[in-house]
Write a structure and sequence with these properties.
The complex is a heterodimer of chains A (335) and B (381). By secondary structure, chain A is mainly alpha-helical. Helix content of chain A is 75%, strand content 1%. The two termini of chain B are 22 Å apart. Classes of the chains: A mainly alpha (335), B mainly alpha (381).
């Protein structure tokens, strides 16, 4: 068994699949990271991906151009994110429930549209849709192992890496990134500093919509070459869990989505090894939950230590005004 | 939160004479309007895609009452969504958003299947044991996201969705490897023993005693939420967890038992569905009744009393859509789309509390003009 797994880790084909299944998760996780940083939970990522996947297929089939399909898919995905923003921010709805609602709307809606267009509920194979290009890399594809892993991957995989860099820069180097984090941390303080929180939240929703749009289009125009019902397969939800694992950073998102990608790709292999596929399929979600628990555990522990230090006055040197310890003020309140 | 005793006699004022509490009446009215709106949207969609929209619309709107068979079908369809709706009422009273009821229901059905296939028990006892076991398992599963949230502040919706995938795969694994009937070409469990099935309520129909069990649970959950200390603690914790904690309510354990009860109802619902409706486990995929439960609970405004009404409404829509899609060119899935729309509207505080906000604004204006000494127009100060 261990030998088998080591063998899998050595094969270039495994890593090819890892990259392929990590990329869509990475893209949506980045989307979840940026909205979470702005203080709004985008549970509608799943729905965004579904509409993007379907729109991409339909438009690319109609125009014969995969890129126009991609743009249309992104537009559809952004639209879902904007609807979420409209209800959650302007109409005071619970953002999480709105996400649930939009996902229902999208699961039903995409099948409804697919059926109305093609007469098929399951798969869009009757539409002559295009796929996004696969990129062979000159010189590198000649390399023995690496060539097989990174050459010939879909362009969306490279988009996902670009997106990591872009989101990293936006969050850490740009003014808008500081505003996003300020809004997420403390809305009132952000308002006092002259930031319009709703605008920031809408901005981050649009970014997450674009990312989910690319991911959705990749699923139906690269990962596979059709739209199938429920094609997002919970990736939008996984992204929301992975976002916690990522700890709110773009670099963290790589690791968080790799956890999913590694187990997802391993599942395909273990299936051949003769383990029951049902249990294997549960593995990526299980590992995601584990990661989710471990990271929150670490985060809480760290926070507890920080609070303890604060309480013991160890951080007072850092320029904080000395506060008389909590015990006395508590006594004061009782009096 | 007493209603303010405004004496104005507009349309809503007149209705208000019968309902003393406007704060409750008006959201109910909006809920009703949302339901009407969704039906109109549905009809609009039919007219866009159907080649024969009039027949399709007729089948959609009247299908459930056109045939007796369909009406029984509707009553059967009410059963599972009543259970998940009740389970989610409890969760929503607590202001949690966990969807773990999906796992509870599905696993409950799996456990009932195992008991129905493997155990030999006397007739009355057999389904009862299955329901109890399924309920207990469902309750324990229901605890998982709550524990994650309380202990590690992990968002309960996200974790429950992950768990739903996990329990779905585990469930189908159990069916495939331990309970599968190898003589069937489709995925199905071995047939249940004859002692396992619930009696039918009406001869020659599928309407089973589970309908009565569901009705009993509507009453039980209403009593639990509004007439017991536990229910009171759940509602207080949901309304204001900080206040509840200061008042000495053990907030964490309240959340835990609320989730257990909710999961218990979900698991029991899964078992009822198996013992009542099926002769063997034949779900090819998870029917995901929890997602229907979301809308049932929201239409009922988190009040178990109204769950039968909203379950009837949703079942009516679904049976109508099913009838229509089998006789026409409109996909059944458009009903899921409408469900999403309704939840979206009902989740919006500004829409649901529109009248209240308007009244408060009007009162504020009246008060302001009274202070200024100007007689307000068209209202009594």
């Amino acid at each position: 068994m261990i030998k088998f797994i080591l063998g899998v880790f050595a094969s270039s084909n495994y890593w090819f699949i890892v990259l392929r299944s990590t990329a869509p998760i990475l893209l949506v996780t980045l989307g979840a990271v940026i909205t979470e940083q702005a203080g709004i939970k985008n549970m509608a990522l799943e729905g965004s991906m579904l509409w993007a996947a379907l729109t991409g297929v339909i438009v690319s089939a109609a125009t014969g151009n995969a890129w126009i399909g991609l743009l249309a898919g992104i537009a559809a995905s952004v639209l879902i994110a904007l609807i979420l923003g409209l209800f959650a921010l302007k109409l005071d709805a619970n953002a999480v429930l709105c996400g649930v609602a939009l996902n229902l709307f999208s699961t039903g809606g995409t099948v409804f549209v697919l059926f109305s267009l093609t007469g098929d509920k399951g798969v869009s194979s009757s539409l002559a849709s295009k796929t996004l290009p696969f990129i062979p890399i000159p010189f590198i594809d000649k390399l023995p192992w690496l060539g097989k892993v990174i050459s010939g991957q879909n362009i969306a995989i490279w988009f996902s890496l670009l997106a990591v860099i872009a989101i990293h820069l936006v969050l850490n180097k740009a003014t808008i990134g500081r505003r996003i984090r300020a809004t997420g941390e403390n809305v009132e303080a952000a308002k006092a500093a002259g930031i319009d929180p709703d605008r920031i939240k809408f901005f981050s929703l649009i970014i997450s919509g674009i990312l989910a749009g690319i991911a959705g289009c990749f699923l139906s125009m690269g990962y596979t070459s059709n739209f199938t019902s429920g094609i997002a397969a919970g990736r939008g939800y996984v992204a929301n869990a992975a976002q916690v694992v990522a700890g709110g950073t773009a670099i963290g998102a790589i690791f968080a989505s790799l956890i999913f990608g590694l187990t997802d790709a391993m599942a395909t292999y273990l299936q051949n090894f003769g383990l029951p596929p049902e249990l294997i399929q549960a593995l990526p979600y299980f590992v995601t939950i584990l990661g989710f628990i471990v990271v929150t555990l670490i985060r809480d522990k760290r926070e507890a230590i920080r609070k303890k230090q604060l309480f013991e006055g160890k951080l007072l040197k850092g320029g904080l005004k000395p506060v008389i310890s909590g015990g006395e003020s508590g006594g004061g309140a009782q009096a | 939160m007493k209603s303010n005793k405004s004496k104005s006699r507009g349309l809503f004022g007149t209705i208000g004479l019968f309902f003393t509490d406007r704060d409750k009446l008006e959201p109910a009215l909006i809920t009703f309007l949302a339901a009407i709106f969704s039906i109109l949207m549905g009809v609009g969609l039919i007219f866009i895609v159907s080649k024969d929209p009039v027949t399709s619309t007729k089948n959609f709107l009247l299908g459930p009452v056109l045939r007796t068979y369909n009406f029984y079908y509707l009553m059967i369809a009410m059963v599972p969504i009543t259970f998940t709706g009740l389970a989610l009422c409890i969760i929503y009273q607590l202001r949690y958003t966990s969807l773990i009821v999906d796992s509870s229901f599905y696993t409950g059905a799996i456990i009932a299947t195992a008991i129905g296939v493997k155990l030999s028990l006397p007739a009355g006892l057999h389904p009862a044991v299955a329901m109890l076991a399924a309920g207990l398992a469902g309750g324990l599963i229901g605890l998982l996201p709550a524990i994650l949230r309380i202990k590690w502040r992990a968002n309960e919706l996200v974790s429950s969705l992950m768990f739903n995938y996990i329990f779905y795969f585990i469930g189908s694994f159990v069916i495939l490897y331990y309970l599968r009937d190898r003589n069937q070409t489709i995925l199905a469990s071995l047939p249940f023993q004859s002692t396992f099935s619930l009696p039918k309520l009406v001869q020659n129909t599928q309407l089973h005693a589970g309908f009565i069990i569901a009705a009993v649970f509507v009453v039980l959950v209403s009593i639990f939420l509004f007439r017991t200390r536990w229910g009171y603690e759940i509602r207080i914790t949901g309304a204001n967890p900080k206040f509840a904690a200061y008042a000495g309510i053990p907030v964490a354990s309240v959340a835990l038992y609320a989730h257990f009860v909710s999961g218990f109802i979900g698991g029991l619902g899964g078992a009822v569905e198996m013992t009542g409706l099926y002769k063997s486990f034949i779900w090819q995929m998870n029917p995901s009744y929890a997602w229907d439960g979301v809308i049932v609970a929201m239409l009922a405004r988190k009040n178990p009393k109204f769950v039968p009404i909203s379950a009837f409404f949703l079942a009516y829509l679904r049976v109508g859509a099913d009838f229509m899609s089998r006789r026409g060119d409109v996909a059944f899935e458009f009903i899921t789309l409408l469900q999403g729309l309704i939840i979206l509207i009902l989740a919006s505080d500004k829409i649901v509390n529109y009248f209240k906000a308007r009244r408060l604004r009007k009162n504020a204006l009246l008060a302001e003009s009274a202070v200024r000494g100007v007689a307000p127009k068209g209202g009594e100060a």
